[in-house]
Design brief:
Elements lengths: L21 H20 L6 H38 L29
Subcellular location: Endoplasmic reticulum membrane
Membrane topology: Multi-pass membrane protein
InterPro entries: Ser_palmitoyltrfase_ssu-like
Length: about 110
């Protein structure tokens, strides 16, 4: 029968750590997100200036896509609000989109029979 004590299985003493500040936790989380983004997209193997160019092109693409989709999202939102409010086929919510046009919406852009 083995009665020896296994000292390796006992927990080691750890000195108490000072509480971490909020901004250091946020900075660590942001660093972790940037690291995961670089590893997931494969940008970790590029130099810093190549990474900057790729990120700038990606950011410009996102801004252009968001800007161009704004018009279509307004049309969908106006139609959805008109449907929720029970208006006739979405035309009641679209007058606000045509407020700046000179022809009063008769250019046929918003639908058939306008």
């Amino acid at each position: 029968m083995d009665t020896s004590v296994n000292y390796h299985a006992q927990p080691q003493y750890e000195a108490p750590q000072p509480p971490r500040r909020f901004h250091s936790r946020v900075a660590q989380k942001i660093d972790r997100w940037i690291f995961l983004y670089n590893v997931t997209t494969g940008l970790y193997m590029l130099d810093w200036w190549e990474r900057c160019i790729i990120n700038t092109v990606f950011l410009i693409f996102l801004v252009v896509a968001g800007y161009n989709s704004n018009h279509y999202l307004q049309m969908i939102g106006a139609g959805l609000l008109a449907w929720v409010w029970g208006a006739d086929s979405g035309r009641a919510g679209q007058e606000g989109l045509l407020a700046g046009s000179d022809d009063g919406g008769a250019n046929g852009v918003m639908g058939v029979g306008s």
